[in-house]
Predict the structure.
Amino acid sequence: MGKRIRVDKLLAHMGLGTRSEIKRAVKFGLVQVDGRLIKDSGLIVDPDSNEVKYDGTPVVYRDIVYFMLNKPQGVISATEDSRERTVIDLLEPNDRLRDPFPVGRLDKDTVGLLLLTNDGQLAHELLSPRKHVAKTYEALVQGEVGDDDILAFKGGVTLDDGYATMPAELVIERREQRDDGVYSSISLTIMEGKFHQVKRMFEAVGKQVVFLKRVSMGALVLDESLLEGSYRELTDAEVELLRSHKRTVE
Ligand code: URA
């Protein structure tokens, strides 16, 4: 038995628009199945045996997947490694078969949101430095993070290699006194993704990140019900959000 999928879902899946844009395209007579114009965007098709055309061009269906992983500490953001466990090792064998790869990197000791997909185009756009996709991190920082740091991050700080960062938004959540000094819980939103960026930004102001978690990337927010090390497929709404965000944030 072939795969059965709604034609609007298939076309949205292939990046031809949101479900409502596809619905409109069907109304305008842009979508054909096996040579016939269709009227119902909910028509069920089998991509292996039905020929779907969008605006006259055949649409080749690829099995694209999007997984949201809550990355645990101790695994690296790579597809393979001879020594270390990778984020791909956390996937079920069936999901690994679809060749997903991590969109960007989190350090081995960083936890939280990591998108895994085999959609090279979306990955490329999310990672493109020109798109300024916002990423929000929560961190525990050794030291007293203060208003001067908020101002410094807003203006951009200079990293150890001389790179001046773009404006970033720092929010101080809490401070606590421990035996070895003050610690601050913060959240930080950055619009770029240099190597070890968050840790190096704090180093630039004389402080050390001791725990780091990513909670969002573009429009995608970590599902807090996912335990560290577990993952799920993105919902259709999440995929659409990611795509539309990508379109508007230039
Ligand atoms: N910044 C870091 O320093 N590490 C990460 O893993 C992500 C952002």
